[in-house]
Amino acid sequence: MNRVLIIGCSHSQGSFEGTENGTENWKPRHIEQKERIATHKVGWWSFVDLLQNCDVKVIAVPGAGFLAYYEILKKLDLKDKLIDFDTLIIQETDEPRISFFHGKFLDQRISEFNSNIAKATSNNDRIKIFPWGVTTKGCFTFFPFRHDLVNELKKFEPISNIVRNNLKLAYTSSLFNELPLIFANKIAEICKHNKINMFAWRWSNKMDKNILLKNNKDVKNLMTMDVWNLPNVRTKGLNGHTSIEGNKNLGTMINDAIIAYNNFSSKNKKLHNTDQTFIIHNFLEEKLFNNILEYYPLRDFFKKYGHGWGNSRYNLKLQHFEPPPYIDLILKHPGWKDFINKINSPDFKNLLFNVLHIDLSKYCILDLDKEPSDMFYFKIDLAIANNGYFLKDHTDSRDKIISGMIYLNDILCNGGNLFLYNMKIKPERNKAVFWVNHNKSYHNVDMIENIKEDRKFIYIALMYCNAKKNIWTN
Question: Which residue of 37, 58, 204, 253 has the fewest C-beta atoms within 10 A of its own C-beta?
Answer without folding.
Answer: 37
